[in-house]
TrEMBL record, chains A, B:
Name this protein carries in UniProt: Guanine deaminase
Nucleotide-binding found in the keyword field: no
Gene3D superfamilies with a match to the protein in the record: Metal-dependent hydrolases (3.20.20.140), Urease, subunit C, domain 1 (2.30.40.10)
Taxonomy, superkingdom: Bacteria
Domain Amidohydrolase-related: 69-443
Molecular functions (GO terms): guanine deaminase activity; zinc ion binding
Pfam families: Amidohydro_1
Co-factor requirement: Zn(2+)
Cellular component GO terms, alphabetical: cytosol
Organism name: Weissella jogaejeotgali
Length: 446, 446
């Protein structure tokens, strides 16, 4: 008799590749003490009933109801944690006003531990409740708040990647909210790395510190160079924004005479552990560079509508095997749900495909062959995110970490429904209320 | 002492015009026995406390909690009621396949009263739960199902406008799902009008029958002419689709040598009681015609992404004083929530404004001055819908019908928040779970 920690009995969906979703009805997902999927037993397998009986006897069997299904937990590749109180606010303002009047003043408040704890604990819990088991966070400039974010991730057993935000360029940052100097920024980044290591001691799911230059405009060349070195020294993930908007894209060209991606690359900031947010204005050369380096893109479809100035050509990127995952980009995006971003990714891609302006003739209006499906988007929200963070999760697969969600359909089916239909409805209609349970590394956290 | 049926005490938001939203804190919305807002008493008014005390004594005071606000109920101008079981399905199929394989077979099932009752009762309840107090429905070809829809509206006290769908053109409709002839279609339409009148007897909120040619391709000229006459004879609202897609737009030009809107107009189907769905491909001449006739447009932003081939220029239409309301277009749209359509209306308008294709230079990429705000979209969901249906509702205003919703913020504020911020967060984040109560004509129905 094999002792599993938990045996989940029910139907599941998991991405096989960017175009295919696998489905198994009434299977057994057997999770071991380490929180790994040790074995998947299908309905017809010989020892199916033996394993069910053993698990029943040991009290480790969790049977899904007929209307529940098991999915991999989602991976959110881009969250500005301190912007959580502003989600849904001021989205009709231009970027600079949004930053100067709403975003920077709020982020500056996270030097207070008490406030940071209040906000971050709610955010981490909210993301988990929405089925997001892993998140890659931008913190704030000040480490007091950042450490509270780390503690919240640890307390809730959420897989967290957290970066101390670096912004030391006095020309593009307000006096009340910036690193004092490149040296100070690098020291604080290194301190953060060590403090996270301390907090991680004896934790099941350690938090990973992330090298985080906010974006090119807010950073001096000195700090970018230093951060590239720190990333190499500690072998850490890197996150930033890249070619998010016409403005940002143009900034690099004006100040450095080079593409945004080229500058980041020259400072050692584009590696196979890098995740760059947005990328809506990346050109062919940038994309080739991302592919060569193994850089992941955080596709933030809701936020991109407000600040991206174009639609990320996700279908093209997926077909070229560029790593692409999904990001909510709180609070450039208003919704903490990856489901909602899956839907917007599909919708934005259709508008890229068909075009938007009725005064242009149909043949010239759109881009054609740009529309993605619910399956493509689900792949990004799971496998694409996992590949970007080099994690063995995002799939229901033997040997993979059991970061999972159990969801039910929002509305009645009024009759028979094939599994493909169930999958589409889940992608289109699931909200936080339909997510019954969430598990990270084999432990139920919702 | 004046006896009000209900006095709602709390904050409210209501659209003043397409650009402005009014807000009052701690006001009294006094509703009389007819379900009309008889008086609005503001916090500073002389008799405020007297009215509060009287209402308390009579047990008619309903005080909102600090985090609740009162909003007008939403008006959904376009719902295909029999497509409800398919919401969220098959959206990546081309229109023709979507109709032939998914939509027509499902709609044909509504000749069974039992099935129709099951689906429609759930739909009507779902829309009410989502804050939609009025809906304009396409039924199906068969009146058995249509009368079940009328009964569900009456049973749930939902303000319903229901049409028997007419489609008699054998070239564009399947044999198993069409009117037998133009004469049969017209007789059935007239029967439906009479049967609705019978069901309406002694009902507080009668259902309005609606003249409903499905769209130009599915109708013969004979039936269109006859429907125009019936609309005039009974002075009834009219609904159809107009210039929804390149295909539909092109159909009229090919078969009639005229614009879609011109053909409908010539058959007497464009009046100040007409609501035309989508209109994404309307040209300047069509829009002028809509304005001249007083036709309303059902803006269905989610559905338009899948089937509209372009983005409705809502800002332009609003600035030209064309009537525009919101529609969910179940199941061309996947979501029964008008809130979700408000969000997509904003997002699609931003993509129209900025453009979608990063390979086009910024100055040529978008349409510019096309982005709408949350306030514009809220106006469409309330006042725009009410104007399109010629209803004295959609605003919190003396003399208007009390179709209202009481909602609370989804997430904590983490501190002070100005009313404008609260409004934006409500528009961006409200789901069915945050809608605490819904009232139609002064009666709580949720």
């Amino acid at each position: 008799m094999i002792n599993y920690k938990t045996v989940l009995q029910g139907s599941y969906y998991t991405a096989i590749d960017e175009n295919q979703v696998g489905h198994q009805a009434n299977s057994l997902v057997c999770i071991n003490d380490e929180g790994t999927i040790a074995r998947i037993v299908l309905a017809g397998d010989d020892d199916y009933q033996v394993i069910v009986n053993d698990a029943k006897q040991q009290g480790t069997l969790v049977s899904l109801s007929d209307d529940q299904v098991l999915l991999p937990g989602f991976i959110d590749l881009h969250v500005h944690a301190p912007q959580w109180p502003n989600s849904g606010l001021a989205l009709d303002r231009p970027l600079y006003e949004w930053l100067e009047e709403y975003t920077f003043p709020l982020e500056a408040k996270f030097k207070e531990a008490k406030y940071a704890h209040l906000v971050y604990d709610n955010l981490v819990e909210t993301l988990l409740a929405n089925g997001t088991t892993t998140a890659l966070y931008f913190g704030s400039v000040d480490n007091t708040g950042n450490l509270e974010l780390v503690k919240s991730c640890l307390a809730h057993q959420k897989r967290g990647f957290v970066g101390k935000v670096v912004m030391d360029n006095p020309e593009q940052t307000p006096a009340y909210y910036r690193d004092e100097s490149a040296t100070a920024a690098l020291n604080e980044t290194e301190n953060f790395i060590h403090e996270v290591a301390t907090l991680n001691e004896n934790q099941t799911i350690p938090v990973t510190p992330v090298i985080t230059p906010r974006f090119l405009p807010s950073c001096t060349d000195d700090v970018l160079a230093g951060l590239g070195k720190l990333a190499a020294k500690y072998d850490l993930p890197i996150q930033s924004h890249c070619s998010e908007s016409d403005w940002e894209n143009g900034y690099a060209l004006t100040t450095h005479g080079k593409r945004d991606a080229t500058v980041l690359d020259e400072f050692g900031l584009l590696t196979d552990k890098s995740v760059m947010a947005h990328g809506t204005l990346l050109n062919g050369e940038d994309i080739q560079r991302f592919k060569d380096r193994g850089v992941g893109i955080a596709h933030c479809p809701i936020s991109n509508v407000y600040f991206g100035n174009a639609v990320l050509p996700a279908k093209k990127l997926l077909s070229e095997n560029v790593k692409v995952g999904m990001g909510t980009d709180i609070s450039g995006g208003y919704d903490p749900s990856v489901y909602q971003n899956i839907r917007q990714a599909i919708m934005s891609s259709r508008l890229l495909n068909d075009g938007v302006d009725s005064e242009i003739t149909p043949d010239l209006r759109g881009k054609h062959d740009a529309a993605i499906t619910a399956k493509n988007a689900f792949y990004m929200a799971t496998v694409g995110g996992a590949k970007s963070l080099n994690l063995a999760t995002g799939q229901i697969k033997e040997g993979y970490i059991a970061d999972l969600q159990i969801v039910h359909a929002k509305y009645p089916t009024f009759g028979q429904q094939v599994p493909e239909d169930t999958f589409e409805k889940l992608m289109y209609q699931t909200t936080v209320s339909e997510i019954d349970h969430v598990m990270t590394q084999g432990v139920f956290v919702k």
